Amino acid sequence: METTQIDINTIIEKSLENSLNYQRYRALVSKLVADKSTTGPNQSESLINYTMLNDKRMKRWDKTVKISETDKIAITNATVNQTWIVLTESWCGDAAHVIPVINKVAELHPGIDLRLVMRDENEQLMDLFLTNGGKSIPKLIQFDNASKTVLNSYGPRPTEATKMVNNFKAEHGTLTAEFKEDLQRWYNKDKGQNVIKDLIELIN
Q1: Which domains does the chain have, with CATH numbers?
Q2: What is the Cα–Cα distance from 71 to 53, expressed in whole angstroms?
Q3: What pLDDT is stored for residue 1 in this prediction?
Q4: Whole-number Å distance between alpha carbons of 25 and 9
Q5: Quick check: pTM over 0.85?
Q6: Pick from 65, 49, 61, 120: which is nearest to 96 by CA?
Q7: CA distance linking residue 8 with residue 149, whole number of Å
Q8: At the top level of its lineage, which domain of life is listed (predicted)?
Q9: Is the pLDDT of residue 89 over 90?
Q10: pLDDT tens-place string over residues 13-53
């Protein structure tokens, strides 16, 4: 059965009721670390450890992500009245690299309202924005506040990282632990710049 715009808007409105701004999301992740816990129903040791690692990653990106003057102008000059809804979970490695950068961009424009929602608490919303049939996160939904329509979606990874993943999967079938380490190194070297460029394209 086809989902209508009215249905999509109802699902979005419902998810926003339990959404967090970035500061509250960061506070939640830090509290989860203190409580030796994680978001979502799966409280496995590995996901709890990923949450702890991601808290450190986000702290680092919050301090170190830099946006060039040229990119700042491109962001602040955009005509935007949007809500950016990001599906995430505290244990997600890509989210820890991408969301702090999304926040830095959103902070520069008063017309962007960034809201974070948990994937496993918002299954209906997640099912509308699958990536190749999978519930990959983080996923940014670009919602226009005036027309009440979804303009686009973005994620789970920046464009260059997506190419790396797709090429590796095409050749090897699945992502190895070694490749995942290579991907982490790519994120650390890129310093959020690919995400910034992608988001500028999204709002222009």
Answers
A1: 5-203 (3.40.30.10)
A2: 29
A3: 56
A4: 23
A5: yes
A6: 61
A7: 9
A8: Bacteria
A9: yes
A10: 999 999 999 999 999 999 999 999 999 999 999 999 999 99
